[in-house]
Design brief:
CATH class of chain B: Alpha Beta
Strand content of chain B: 15-25%
Number of domains of chain A: 4
CATH architecture of the largest domain in chain A: 3-Layer(aba) Sandwich
Shape of chain A: globular
CATH architecture of chain B: 3-Layer(aba) Sandwich
Number of domains of chain B: 1
Largest sheet of chain B: 8 strands, mixed
Order of helices and strands of chain B: HHEEHEHHEEEHEHEHEHEHH
Radius of gyration of chain B: 21 Å
CATH superfamily of the largest domain in chain A: Thiamin diphosphate (ThDP)-binding fold, Pyr/PP domains
Helix content of chain B: 25-40%
Distance between the termini of chain A: 36 Å
Strand order of the largest sheet of chain A: 9-8-10-11-13-12-19
Radius of gyration of chain A: 26 Å
Structural class of chain A: alpha/beta
CATH class of the largest domain in chain A: Alpha Beta
Oligomer: heterodimer
Strand content of chain A: 15-25%
Number of helices of chain B: 11
Strand order of the largest sheet of chain B: 2-1-3-4-8-7-10-9
CATH topology of chain B: Rossmann fold
Amino acid sequence: MDQLDLTIRIAGENGEGVLTVGDVLAEALARSGLHIYTFKNLPAEIKGGASMTQVRVQDTPVRSPGDALDILMVWNQENYDIHVGEVKPSGVVIFDPDECEADESLALTQIAVPLQKITKTVIKTMKSKNVLAFGILTTFLGIPVEAAKQMVAESRWGRRKEFLESNINALKQAYIYVADNDIDLGLSVPVNQRNGHAQLIMTGNDALCMGALAAGCRYYAGYPITPASDVMETLAKAMPRVGGVLMQTEDEIAAITASIGASFTGAKVMTATAGPGLSLMVEALGLATMEEIPMVVVDVQRGGPSTGMPTKTEQSDLNLAIYGAHGEAPRIVIAATNTEDCFYTAVKAFNLAEKYQTPVIMLSDQHLSQRAQVMSRPDLSRIEIVERKQPEVNGSVSPQEFDRYEMTDDYVSPMPLPGRHGQHYVATGLEHDEHAHIDYSPEAHIRMTEKRHQKIESAVNEPGFVQRYGAEDAQLGLIGWGSSEGPILEALDRTLAKGYKVAALIFKMLQPLPEKEARAFIESIPVVSVVELNASGQFANYLQGRLAVSLKRFNIITGLPFKAGDIEEYIEGVLQYG
Amino acid sequence: MAEVRTADAEKTGTTERSGDEGRVVKRKLKDYRSEVKPTWCPGCGDFGVLAALQRALAERDLDPKDVVIVSGIGCSGRLPEFVNAYGLHVVHGRALPAAQGVKAANPDLTVIAVGGDGDGFAIGGGHVPHAVRRNQDITYIVMDNQVYGLTKGQPSPSTPTGMQALRRSVSMPKMAPYEGVLEGQLNILAMVIVYGCSFVARTFSSQATEMAKTIGRGLDHPGFAFVHAMSPCPTFYNTYDPWKESFMPLPEGWDTGDRIKAIDMAMEEVGDGVFHSGVFFQEEYRTYTDKLQDVYTKAYGDEQATIDALMDQYA
């Protein structure tokens, strides 16, 4: 049997419940031992506008949102018109004949299911329309009614006992309707295997929150912003339970400066935001670099500039993350690639921040932050945690003798903490000497600039932040960073299978730049192209500037994530036509 | 003598206030002097504020390792450098959020935020109401000289409107060359009372003893304490003479528990051309830390087991 690979999209009016159908379907399939990858595209408004949710299901880990659709369910005409063009020739459209008219000229299987009418006349609770829609989908996927009932019972629809019966009834009506009308798509998605607690269904934001907690994050300050707000909400529930503090501040400037204050006392701190918030944080990020204060700043990138497209995805804050500072304020910038990686990258972000006493910017993006994927449950006892270099407690060195910014071999100096160490000092954003005294002399500025830069540069030797894939003798090399890893690697596998000689190099650390790996890759392959979700090729420009090389680029700026098919076509295009 | 005593305090690792076991001699004002000499102009009111703060710290015999002084940018923002304690000198206007982070992460510390009128009520003005709302046990001393000193004498949010200030300043006419200061004067004290602050006081740098006492009351107050420390700038806007004239204590028997009266007084004194010194308002509310303690009582558990349990919601 071929590998299971179905892409299912449900689209309707925003606020109508289509997103719930997608969520429940994804969770149910994931609990049944399958791998899922969700993708939502919604307007920034709370109610109204077209919204859609998509679930791609496979029996192995899913790496990208899926190309053309196998199943499209639409609830109204607007959504039919928007999405019908994306259905595969072999695909199926499920539409409500009372709400929309199908285009008969299309060579597609189009099945009319009067969702609205059945809900109104048979089920008689409008709230159950989404359970009915769910049932139609599970029937078409060949999921037996008993298994589907269990899915409903285990879902949010089963949480309240008083509604369970009517929800199960709605589900049954779906199976009755499909049986009565003798519809069979011939699908049989295997849902026998049960996932215990070993597999987790998480979004990128969920995973990074758990990673942060596991790494020891005990102070979070933040300001609401799409698509980072759910980091704050998740931690609001979690933080008090581990003795931490979550503070919703009055703006992002307060969030980052409060985080600096908390870290000054020794707490492991984080703030998460999106591009507009990161813009506001830039001044204080420079302060954290200057005072050598560890902290993690998560930027969940969204479409920009300005307010831009808050609910769309883009990789367009790279320049800001790397260069956003007055003066020269080096910091570490890393990017997560998928949901599971959000967990481990968050852990690494804290470890790097503490080890190098520096702000670490962790880049995510709207798509990565909101989509759900399946990941293996992390074993917390095996997570390595790095602690900050500190002076000896009860050490006899007086504050007058102590050098907070002592020049050490690794440029990292022991940091005394208020209430804990007697070596009190004044951390200042002004240029200073080893003793933390203000010093504008050329010598002090040269020494401290070197300290700040060398410290960050040495982090390039940290393992696991750059990885090469594909053919050794590649004719075309793709470079990607962060969340484009999945679609790049899927496209790589597809084109390798077709006989193309391609390779990929994926960066998870962007500053400091793993130059050695980048140069070796670029010099060994005739044509190298940088694949990223932005218009100007920010990473390509950065690589060109650092390495003095010339690179091709492949950029899309639709506000949507890469599809593996986009990149596959690009690879074939370059290798066939140059 | 002082060193021996400090070492003792460190050995016990205590964060307790005065009367620590094994310590006989209390700290003196000079024990809170750092090795850095103040960089302020001769005659700056901030010298008085610094000394008053050091005296208040000495009276409470606070261990320098348990004291964090947080500041933003401006002449007065340099104060932490001159105190023998922990200091956190941040960006312009952000002393309050930084101080709140310090206090939230370690409530055992004595946290003092300091800064000027520009730092606190122009660039940083948006943070004041929120610091008040959180009511953390922080003392915020605003050294108000009604001028931007470090940038050489531009009008600030508390500069009197119109031509009034220009007569005493050689620098301000540069920014207000025609009709004087076009913007109105902010009533800082009234604002903070209206925000709902749990402790609001005013004091004058030329009245050293009284200032130390007022700052001390702020330190003792369990909650966000606002100290409006009038501190003249002899270089760019010399207000010593008029302020000496117009400063007077709050009326005998002043009721510090009446917020409305405090607002009235703060509004009326402007028309009367006087500054009242003393505690305008004080009331104890539950602090942010108090409320957090309640949350912890309900939620706290073994950390790793809790995180594992939190992950169950995704299973």
